[in-house]
Amino acid sequence: MSGQPAIILVEPQLAENIGATARAMLNCGLTDLRLVNPRPEWPSERARANASGADTVLDQATVFRSVGEAIADLQRVYATTARARDLTKVVMTPPQAVAELRAELARGERVGVLFGPERTGLLNDDVALADAVIAVPLNPAFSSLNLAQAVLIVAYEWFKAADATPPVSLHHNASPPATKAHLTSFLGRLEAELDACGFLRNIEMRPAMVRNIRAMFARAELTDQEVRTLHGILTELVTKRLKD
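Above: the chain's sequence. Below: its structure in token form.
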């Protein structure tokens, strides 16, 4: 991916919507399509027919087994949702999100936008992995969007803002933002140690506690060096506990 956000469809259920998404993306100059456990058989001729010529997007599309794998190389992730969530996240409109996306890409960061399944939208566990939420202001009495429509709104804002990006100077000595894979590795270690010390002993509350911990660290926008420091802190704490 170079100079553009990845569009990530989580468990899309209809091949036609994948094709329509590819069409919407290429309309706006986007080509990095990532699919997490697509429900229809893949590759799909129905998707290709509905793409109306956006074959290059479908041909380059990559398939992943989990959201974590799909965003592992990214440093900033946005989740799209139409529902209020029981998570503390910055919520922004598509134009606000696009302004941030362009600034982040100008700094050399890798970014992506998550879109959930047609019927249910993203799970809270998926939203917890994101740094911020994109919500489209629509008629509150009827705010339902087709998957490809939602992608088109974000993609069009991206395309429309092409000439509005202010120049951004890079501070080359600063540590780059941590990749999602690096952060997930630390969180995996942290959760294992919290299990070992009994902090997550309440089985019923454990999933919500883990989601909140992950959401808290996602909001922190940690750099690669900061995550390395956290790994070191955790190692020292665990080593001291075992010695005691």
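The beta strands are 6-10, 33-36, 62-64, 76-80, 90-92, 111-115, 132-134.
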